[in-house]
């Protein structure tokens, strides 16, 4: 009815998904940031939605996965986050770097996070205690 489809009038550079994947492993790197870098090199390139779609399709074709099954109550994964957040002292306005403790239950992915002053043993132990206390079912009143 409308005739044969017309061929594209220009070529758009396809994103290098292997490069994108390697870059995304670096702390703080986002697809949005990588898209902006891509557009700097290829101003007529794909817009963000299509750029992300190329990357998602590439990830799907890789087919790599590592399924882990954890029984309820079996494992809790704990660590401090790599990047230090900061808080502002309300009284002085001072910006204070803190440590971010994170605990995740294996079966449910229930996540607990809190900021502590240090990664020293007293803070480490106290964070564990609070994490386990918060994950217990609370009595209903």
Tell me what you see in this structure.
The protein has 141 residues and is of the alpha+beta class. It folds into two domains: 17-62, no CATH class; 76-135, no CATH class. Helix content is 35%, strand content 17%. It has four helices and five strands; from the N terminus they run αααβββββα. It has helices spanning 17-24, 31-41, 48-62, 121-135, and strands at residues 76-80, 86-88, 95-97, 99-105, 111-116. It has a three-stranded antiparallel beta sheet, with helices on one face. The longest helix is centred in the middle third of the chain and has 15 residues, at 48-62. The N and C termini lie far apart (70 Å).
Write the layout of secondary structure elements.
Layout lengths: L16 H8 L6 H11 L6 H15 L13 E5 L5 E3 L6 E3 L1 E7 L5 E6 L4 H15 L6
Antiparallel strand pairs: 1-4, 2-3, 4-5
**Ends distance:** 70 Å
Major sheet attributes: 3 strands, antiparallel
Task: State the shape.
Answer: elongated
Q: Residue share in helices?
A: 25-40%
Number of helices: 4
Low-confidence runs (pLDDT<50, min 5 residues)?
none
As a whole number of angstroms, the C-alpha radius of gyration is 23 Å
Strand order of the largest sheet: 1-4-5
Q: Structural class of the helix and strand makeup?
A: alpha+beta
Domain module tally? 2
Order of helices and strands: HHHEEEEEH
Strand content: 15-25%
Provide mean pLDDT, rounded.
Answer: 89
How many beta strands in the DSSP annotation? 5
Provide a short characterization of the protein structure.
With 141 residues, this protein is α+β, with helices and mostly antiparallel strands. It contains 4 helices and 5 strands. The longest helix has 15 residues, at 48-62.
């Amino acid at each position: 009815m409308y005739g044969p489809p017309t061929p594209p009038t220009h070529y758009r550079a396809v994103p290098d998904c292997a490069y994108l994947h390697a870059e995304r492993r670096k702390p703080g790197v986002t697809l949005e940031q990588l898209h902006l870098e891509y557009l700097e090199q290829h101003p007529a390139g794909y817009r963000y939605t299509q750029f992300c779609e190329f990357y998602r399709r590439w990830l799907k074709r890789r087919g790599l996965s590592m399924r882990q099954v954890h029984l309820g109550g079996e494992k809790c994964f704990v660590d401090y986050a790599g990047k230090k957040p900061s808080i502002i002292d309300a009284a002085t306005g001072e910006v204070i770097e803190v440590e971010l403790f994170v605990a995740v239950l294996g079966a449910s992915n229930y996540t607990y996070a809190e900021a502590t002053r240090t990664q020293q043993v007293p803070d480490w132990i106290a964070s564990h205690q609070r994490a386990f206390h918060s994950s217990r079912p609370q009595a209903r009143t």
